[in-house]
Amino acid sequence: IEVEIKDINDNAPSFQEAETELRMIETTAPGSRFPLPDAHDPDWDRNSVQSYELSGDEHFSLAVQAGPGGDQRPELVLAKALDREEVAFHELLLRAMDGGDPARTGTARIRVTVVDANDNAPVFSHAEYTVRVPEDVPVGSVLVTVTAADADEGLYGYVKYSLKKITEKVTKVFHLDVNTGVIKLLRSLDYEEGDSYELEVQAHDGGGLFDTAKLTVTVTDVNDNAPELTVTSSLSEISEDAPSGTVVALLHVQDRDSGANGEVRCTLDSGVPFRLEKSLEDYYRVVTARELDREQVSEYNVTVRAADGGSPALQSSAVLALRVLDVNDNAPVFAEERYSARVVENNAAGALVLTVRATDADWGQNARVRYRLAEGRVRG
Question: Does residue 250 sit in the same domain as residue 308?
């Protein structure tokens, strides 16, 4: 007796694991294939697994290969290039269907984890950084923090910083923290040594990709230099009859600061018979403003002051010591306009009759007075 047992579709296809995880690097070429778990159905013939479907993502498609025993083997096909920075995980649904009527189905979730590749270089937040700092900024100050971001993860996304094409001078002035991008000042700045520094900063990741940014540090001037006043030549003596406009001294002034901080104005003491005249750029001459009078003032100590335009202003000074030489411009003057004396008639020759006195305001030989009678003798 042969008994034919007819199968009925009382089992649905099922997967051994409800969820399967696949890992593929984001640089995987489109068209690449990956085996998927197959479903099992204890039913027979057409009531067993007949087809597969995949849903969930445009990046993937499904291919089904026939096994040596006629079974079907599903494969995941990469249809579109992956980008971990856009989507790091892809959730797919694999459905197995039998041929029953009605058909029964079973499902499994396919989770694709996109493994990072070093396909992104670091990118600075600015292609150029410009920093303005006064020259008196304290040592140790943070001048700027450069930042770069890398869309990769892990070692590929870890950014370090360095300075490129730097001189020995720059290494003594600036310090860059390789991990944070903080740039600090190592020593005092001096505007007069250099008013700007051009630096090249590089950000590189753990995979060797890098980006470069330009950093310009502009040093601004502060009023830290007093004017330099130099007496290039000067007289120590001048005749009191020297004409007005006689040059007494030549001066040179300069200030190492810039702008208003370096603009110098010179002045003289008030009340002296001298004036300042500008001859050339940064050069002055001191000249007499009127005729001198030694009998009124015989020596001058003239202070020349140079002040810059800073706030507060810095200044320096120089003293010109000048002695006025005498000319014979004063006649002797008798102490009395008229002298009288009484003389005894029997007076001996040579007896003192009277003493006259005259003084001269001049000096030295010009002030030495000699006396004589206008007629030489009076009645013998």
Answer: yes
* Residue 306, in any domain of the structure: yes
Task: Kindly state whether residue 188 falls inside one of the protein's structural domains.
Answer: yes
Query: What is the number of domains present in the chain?
Result: 3
pLDDT: is 346 or 263 the higher one? 263
Identify which of 132, 163, 159 has the alpha carbon closest to the alpha carbon of residue 147.
159
Question: Distance between CA 210 and CA 334 in Å, rounded?
Answer: 103
Among 169-178, 289-298, 340-349, 370-379, whose mean pLDDT is lowest?
370-379
CATH number reported for the structural domain that contains residue 89 in this entry: 2.60.40.60
Do 136 and 178 reside in the same domain of the chain? yes
* Mean pLDDT taken over the chain: 93
Judge if 156 and 239 occupy the same domain: no
Whole-angstrom distance, CA of residue 87 vs CA of residue 57: 11
pLDDT digits (tens, 9 = 90+) for 88-106: 999 999 999 999 989 999 9
Interatomic CA distance for residues 89 and 335, integer angstroms:
123
Per residue in 247-263, pLDDT (tens digit) is 999 999 999 999 999 99
Per-residue CA distances from 313 to 220, 229, 257, 284 (Å): 17, 15, 12, 20
Domain that residue 157 falls in: 123-220
Q: What is the rounded distance in angstroms from the CA atom of residue 125 to the CA atom of residue 306?
A: 48
Given 220, 248, 275, the domain boundary residue is 220
Using CB atoms within 10 Å of the CB of residue 108, give its burial: 0 to 12 exposed, 13 to 18 middle, 19+ buried: buried
Residue pair 191/219 in contact by the 8 Å Cβ criterion: yes
pLDDT band at 276 (very low <50, low <70, confident <90, very high): very high
Q: Do 99 and 128 belong to one domain?
A: no
- Flag whether pLDDT at 376 surpasses 80: no
Look at residue 104 and tell me if it is in a domain: yes
Of the residues 298, 325, 352, the one at which a domain ends: 325
Residue 159 is assigned to a structural domain of this protein: yes
Nearest to 217 by CA among 247, 241, 193: 193
Chain-centre distance of CA 330, in angstroms?
A: 69
What is the DSSP code string of 11-76? ---EESSSEEEEEEETTPPTT-EEE-PPEE--S-GGGSEEEEEEES-TTEEEEEEEPTTS-EEEEE
